[in-house]
Amino acid sequence: MTLNRRRFLQASGAALTAPGLTACGTEKVPTTGVPRSGFDEDATAELVTEDIDLSGKIAVVTGCNSGIGYETMRVLALRGAYVLGTSRSLERATEACRSVRGVTTPLQLELGDPASIIACADALRSLTAPIDILVCNAGYRGGGNQRELINGIEKHFAINHLGHFLLVNRILDRLFFSWQGRVVVVASRTSYRDTPDKGILFDDLRMDSDYSDAVAYGHSKLANVLFSRGLARRLRGTRITSNSLHPGVINTEIDRNMNGFLQTGFGLLTALTGKTIAEGAATSCYVATSPSLGATSGKYFEDCNAVTVIDSYHNDDAMADRLWELSEKMVGEHYITHERPDWSEFENGLRKPRREDK
């Protein structure tokens, strides 16, 4: 990917379309109060973490077996973090973890299955150690405009939003004990380009009317952004931040469910205007590790910098609150209310032994 190529495409008026991608312009401005990074769309995950030592940190990356999830895990481990990587397939997670340099542990996680999410969360909690970084990267993208449901909920929304909502909720207390915990939610620019006109479809989460894969995916990614923003508001006054991001247009396995024609079109589009996987993981790694973002929360990032999307639902706190309340009800008995810890009982992020425990 080069600037010259982009200029060529703009000058030639080239236009390519694919589900979830639109050519329309959207007004975006730098978010005030957030330091500018100095990186751009050409930065790689290794570049943005070049001088960062993550030794002693614990990171969790969902969807570690391929694409930007794999690259995110690889680079965090390269910088010294102990990374726990998840995949729907334990075999694929194991293979991915074994192939990277550093200390990693594979875990199985099926985001469409509450039992799998709870089992994964329990495994993470069994470490009895702080979690410093949680990258919610895994995602589902359908193909063929065939609507699917999980427990009566449209599949994109169930996996991309509710799955991560439950996972974060089940392990949030482990982030409290980090010196500076970070939740990083990988969303998409489809969160403002391909969403329903009304935003979150609170009265039609099955998407019974006017279904398309593109809108369903954008709908779930808007939920990602609003979840991250809602989480940030609930974590005010703590040492945990929550931010969301668009990684870029990248030819990863996200298109695996598209038909052959659409896969070909998507591959051509990404080859001409997209990012490499190394570039696609840059924003995730930057938001997860940059020392300059220790006080930045509730923001949305593109190309390693926070941006505000004008006339989008990104900053709709009322919608974010309604989504949170609805999500609580939807996960039902699996939802946990976390009390903020009494810091006097902890030392270096771990609970001090009580006298009766000695």
In brief, what are we looking at here?
By secondary structure, the chain is of the alpha/beta class. Helices cover 38% and strands 15% of the residues.
Q: What about the largest sheet?
A: 9 strands, mixed
- Helix tally? 12
Q: Determine the N-to-C terminus distance.
A: 59 Å
Radius of gyration: 20 Å
Explain how this protein is built.
- The protein has helices spanning 3-12, 45-48, 67-78, 90-98, 114-125, 155-176, 190-193, 213-234, 260-273, 277-280, 282-289, 317-331; strands spanning 28-30, 58-62, 82-87, 104-108, 133-136, 149-150, 153-154, 181-186, 240-246, 300-302, 305-309, 346-347, 350-351.
- It has 358 residues and is of the alpha/beta class.
- It has a single domain (28-332), classed as Rossmann fold (3-Layer(aba) Sandwich).
- α6 runs parallel beside α8.
- The longest helix has 22 residues, at 155-176.
Notable features of this structure?
alpha/beta, two-stranded antiparallel sheet, disordered N terminus, 358 residues, Rossmann fold, 9-stranded mixed sheet, 12 helices, disordered C terminus
Furnish the topology, listing elements before pairings:
Elements: H1 3-12, E1 28-30, H2 45-48, E2 58-62, H3 67-78, E3 82-87, H4 90-98, E4 104-108, H5 114-125, E5 133-136, E6 149-150, E7 153-154, H6 155-176, E8 181-186, H7 190-193, H8 213-234, E9 240-246, H9 260-273, H10 277-280, H11 282-289, E10 300-302, E11 305-309, H12 317-331, E12 346-347, E13 350-351
Parallel strand pairs: 2-3, 2-5, 3-4, 5-8, 8-9, 9-10
Antiparallel strand pairs: 1-11, 6-7, 10-11, 12-13
Helix pairs in contact: 5-6, 6-8, 8-12
